[in-house]
Every structure is written in C-alpha cells, then in structure tokens.
C-alpha cells in the first residue's frame, strides 16, 4: 500500500475523489432531509408520485443524453497535454452543440409522451401539468459539457461546491413546504428550482474557468464542422451515448416500472431503497469520476493504467464492503427515523439490493479501461446485454415476488454488468502491446 501512494496518479485520484466526496456527503444528508420532509408531509401515494415525476424527467434525459463529459476528457485532455488549445476548443464546441441538440429532442419527446404515459406510471390526471413543468428541466439535465470541462481542467473543487447547491435548496424548500403545508405542488416546484439553480451554477463555473485560462470561444456551440476536424468523434459519442443511456436509465426507469406494476406507493419505497443504495456506493463513484481523467493521460500500451485500475478497484471494493456493513447495521433505524415507521418496509428491499455493493464498487474501472483502449463498442455490447437481462428479470421477479423481486433483479443486473464488462477488458489487457498511445488514438 505504501508503494501505491508513491504513484502520483493514484494520489491525484484520491485527492479529487475527496473533493467530490466532501460535496456529496453533505449533499446526501441534505437530500435525506428533503425526502424526509416530503415523506412526512405527503401521503405514500403522493410521495410516490413525486418520485415518479422526478424519475420520468431524469429517465428521459438519461435516454437522450450524450456522454459529452467523457468525450471532452477523452479528446480534450490529450490536447491540453500537447498545449493544443485550438483542438480543445473544437472538442468543447462540438460537445456543447451536441448537448443542445439532444436536450431539445428530449424535451419534445418527453412532453409529447407524458400525457399518454401518465396514468400507466402512476401520475394522476390533475398532476400532469406539474409533471409537464418538471419536464422543461430535461435540456439542462442532459447537458454534460460543463462537467467535462471542469474535470479536464482538474477543477474538482468547483464540482464539489456545485454538488451541495441542489440538495441544499431542495432541503430548504422541503422544510418550507412541510412547515407551510404547501402540499404536492410546493414540493414539485421546490425540486424544480433547486435542480435549475444547481445546473446553472455548473455552467457559470465552467465559463469562469475557461476565461481564467484564456480559452476563448470554447462555449460557442458547433456540431458538424468541429466533428469533421475531430477524427472518431461521432463513433465515440454515439457508442458511449447508447451505452450510458441504457445504464443511466436503470434507476429512473426501474422506479417507473415498479410504479406501473405495483402502484405509486411501491415506487416510493423503491425510491427510498435505491437512494440509500446509491448513497452507499458514492465513495466508488467519486473514485470513478477522478479515475477516468487520470488514465487518459497515460499510455494504454504500458502496464501503468492497468495497475492503477487494479489498485483503485481494490480500494473501492473495500469501501463497498464497509458501506455494506453500515447499511445492514444502521439502515432500518435510519429509515424509520428519517421517513417514519410506515416506510420501514423499504429496508427489506435495501438489504437485498445491498448484496451487490462490493461487486458494483470493485469493478467500476472496467468501463474506463475499455474507453482508454478504444474498445467503447465492447462496453456498449456488455452494458446492453446486462440491461436487457435486467429488464427481463425485473418484470419476471416483480410478478413472482412483488417488491422484493425488484431488489433481486437489481442484484442480478449488477452482477451481469460486471461479468459482461470483465471479459472484453481482460482481452484488451492481453492485447495492450498493439494499442497506440492515447494522443495518437485521439487524433
């Protein structure tokens, strides 16, 4: 372990992960306050509807969202290493243009389909207009350009600050809504304003950092012209978009499916359990976000990025084990304290879902390694197969075991994702001698 910490890249990963962790820890606590206020102020059915409204907008944005932050890191980081500001500017312009196009498509599709899907997903007719209002957030939820800029420029401290803003505003608004008896509409509007303010702050930080570094016109959107000057741009963004859209939609669409099959009250319980599960997996998530930019500065033909992945994965798996024990020991009293005894049933679901914590945390480097090695299509196939299998298991398990079945399906999906991603990663490692340096791949 002492030798591990002598690696500057490993230390940078831990440093940046600690920035993100400091923001997310506070954000997670504030989010629990917001959820607790909603859980106590609303009936289980209305609380579930609130979760479905948020999940619908998040799910649509996840489906249409291009992983432009990964594109910026993948093509922009090598350009900055070479001090090629012109190329970095082309990368960010293409990314911004893609965000605008996908956000507009998501907004139109999401608002057009909602009136037809509302009843099936558990949104009452009188609440459709509020849900349509929430859908106007889809374009800003879709944009990942400012995140990519800040990660590439190594400003994880700004990201940490931004991560506190949305949950802080949501918590404050939740307290006001609970104390003032503002009801369902008050909570929807509060969540809306908080999401909007937090996302706009990201754009402010990115624009300010670009100006500070004298990188001008980087946020002037472009699309086809910049893409022609960036070899492999469309292949990368389409492949990563489909892969991540499939996987990122797991949580929101799972809520929608649970709500459609078991009712909004069950969707609320699933939301609580999944929120706790995601919070438990955050340490590995912080490492992942700081891991990817670091390995993009290394040569994939050498052993260094692969060793770095093993070390980071072992560390993340250990953190996952610790969080698993914490969840098992303190999950039930915490849910009872925060949400009330009527939501304790969510702990049984959380216990089942937590079984996959170690697997999901320890294997996070696999996908980044595939992107580094130019094997993004293999990642797409792996995640697509895992998501398809999860969807089938989710419907079947809910039919057979009810809400607990949704937790069993979630565990199965996580394990399949790890296995399907491990196979091409091992193949890429064995053939690493034929891989070009990342700067040549990015050209």
TrEMBL record:
Pfam families reported for this sequence: Polysacc_synt
Leader peptide range in chain numbering: none
Cellular component terms (Gene Ontology): plasma membrane
Membrane topology: Multi-pass membrane protein
Record InterPro entries: Poly_Biosynth_Transport (IPR050833), Polysacc_synth (IPR002797)
Subcellular location(s) per record: Cell membrane
Keyword field: Cell membrane, Membrane, Transmembrane, Transmembrane helix
Main localization, broad class: membrane
Transmembrane intervals: 51-73, 94-117, 129-152, 164-183, 308-329, 349-366, 378-401, 407-429
Name the record gives this protein: Polysaccharide biosynthesis protein
Organism: Sphingobium cloacae
